[in-house]
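Summary of Year 1 activities. Much of the first year was spent building the evaluation harness for sequence design. The harness presents a backbone, in tokenized form, and records the residue chosen at every position. We chose the following record to illustrate the format because it has been used consistently in internal testing since the harness was completed.
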């Protein structure tokens, strides 16, 4: 049974360490030397001390928690981000407070309120306005995932320019001339960058791009909706370039349901390289992005005690060639993958 009369400061005095060190030991942090850890644990065991979470926060002038703000939770992309972020938070003993906006009214107020209860906050770009991000940055450390940095916060993103490498592969190596882009540039900074890379590749290859993307969301069902808009018309494209793998799988299912062959009648590509991309037949040509590393890097910036997060970190992505674009199992030119 814990001794309620024993305080964190008393334990710190007996062990000859700071209250913050006692707090780190009590929550299992790895940022304490083995010698100090043993000394503190000996005093804790002998005294029957049980930590007070309020006392810990006061002693360390911190909450011991991180905020994570997403637009939603469905799909492997957000699942991978959440797993990576939580895994890194466990290393420092921080808890994670999750807020999924689902684009509902009142999200701004909820995010601002959450900022008062955490030491740092990761905000996925496109979830709240830039003004709210700046306001939150006045209260807590902020890192924006897949967005742009500012003087008040850092950002961590992946290299969306590889979408241009993929588009060039379709235009030049496969000589497709009618490409459609599936995704909503105005709904996501990532999709905006991928659409811009798609257009740039067309201009570089001397091919006229489509005037507009097929504006849908990022779920598999949105790929089905997009397929209905582009596969039943007379000028069906040669290839469909999707902003993510989920929509690409939706397009493939719809194409097969219409009796079309992939890639003989329609090439389809994605972006993410989620697990299912390599399991479908034909395998999905896509761009692999390090989703888990995106989350762990963000979490590390938030808990780094030596500096306030600033600047932008861009993680490399990689083109992965599979059968859905028309490549053989070994990829075009015998290469299964092509770098950025």
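For this record, the design step produced the sequence shown next.
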């Amino acid at each position: 049974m814990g001794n309620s009369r024993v305080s964190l400061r008393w334990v710190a005095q007996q062990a000859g360490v700071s209250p913050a060190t006692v707090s780190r030991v009590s929550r299992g942090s790895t940022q304490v030397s083995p010698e100090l850890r043993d000394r503190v644990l000996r005093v804790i065991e002998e005294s029957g001390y049980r930590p007070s979470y309020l006392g810990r926060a006061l002693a360390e002038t911190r909450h011991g928690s991180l905020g994570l703000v997403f637009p939603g939770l469905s799909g492997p992309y957000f699942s991978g981000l959440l797993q990576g972020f939580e895994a890194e938070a466990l290393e420092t003993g921080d808890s994670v407070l999750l807020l999924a906006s689902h684009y509902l009214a009142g999200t701004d107020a909820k995010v601002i309120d959450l900022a008062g209860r955490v030491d740092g906050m990761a905000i996925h770009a496109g979830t709240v306005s830039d003004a709210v991000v700046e306001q939150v940055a006045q209260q807590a450390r902020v890192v924006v995932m897949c967005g742009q940095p500012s003087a008040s916060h850092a950002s961590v993103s992946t290299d969306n320019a590889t979408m241009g490498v993929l588009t060039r592969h379709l235009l030049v190596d496969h000589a497709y001339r009618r490409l459609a882009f599936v995704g909503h540039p105005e709904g996501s900074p990532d999709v905006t960058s991928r659409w811009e890379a798609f257009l740039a590749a067309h201009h570089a290859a001397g091919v006229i791009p489509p005037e507009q993307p097929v504006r849908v969301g990022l779920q598999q069902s949105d790929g089905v909706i997009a397929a209905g808009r582009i596969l039943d018309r007379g000028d069906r494209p040669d290839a469909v370039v999707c902003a993510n793998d989920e929509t690409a799988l939706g397009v493939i299912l719809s194409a097969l349901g219409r009796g079309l062959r992939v890639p003989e009648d329609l090439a389809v590509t994605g972006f993410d390289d989620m697990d299912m991309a390599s399991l479908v037949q034909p395998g999905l040509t896509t761009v692999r992005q390090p989703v888990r590393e995106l989350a762990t890097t963000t979490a590390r910036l938030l808990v780094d005690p030596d500096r306030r997060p600033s600047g932008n970190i861009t993680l490399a992505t990689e083109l992965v060639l599979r059968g859905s674009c028309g490549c053989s199992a070994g990829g075009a030119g015998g290469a299964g993958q092509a770098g950025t």
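The two ends are 59 Å apart (CA to CA). Quantitative recovery figures across the full test set are reported in Table 2.
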